[in-house]
């Protein structure tokens, strides 16, 4: 089952994993140490993030290092951008109204 990217990033542990691997590729063992959780629990989070293509594995000898996938986050950012523009317009309109109201009170 393919995971929904929004469900994947809704979990604070997965967001923290993303933040760590954005800085440096990590193995599941290294992640487990950072989060003080079992490797099995970390593996479940990794599986979700990998299914959403937010992280990608790279084999190095016997270890697997997980890397951040910025392209997938760019897709998410582009999707959110359409809403951001709308919010900015609405906030600017609200600022104008509030400024007008404050001038009328003086």
The end-to-end span amounts to 61 Å
Structural class: mainly alpha
- Record the strand order, biggest sheet: 1-2
Low-confidence stretches: none
Q: How can the largest sheet be summarized?
A: 2 strands, antiparallel
Could you state the order of secondary-structure elements as H and E? HHHHEEH
Helical fraction equals over 70%
Choose one word for the global shape: elongated
Please, how many domains?
2
* pLDDT averaged residue by residue: 89
- Give the name of the CATH superfamily of the largest domain: Winged helix-like DNA-binding domain superfamily/Winged helix DNA-binding domain
Q: How many individual helices?
A: 5
CATH classification, class level of the largest domain: Mainly Alpha
Q: Remind me, CATH topology of the largest domain?
A: Arc Repressor Mutant, subunit A
Task: Describe the protein's architecture and organization.
- The protein is mainly alpha-helical.
- It folds into two domains: 1-68, Winged helix-like DNA-binding domain superfamily/Winged helix DNA-binding domain (Arc Repressor Mutant, subunit A); 70-106.
- The protein has five helices and two strands, in the order ααααββα.
- It has a two-stranded antiparallel ribbon.
- The N and C termini lie far apart (61 Å).
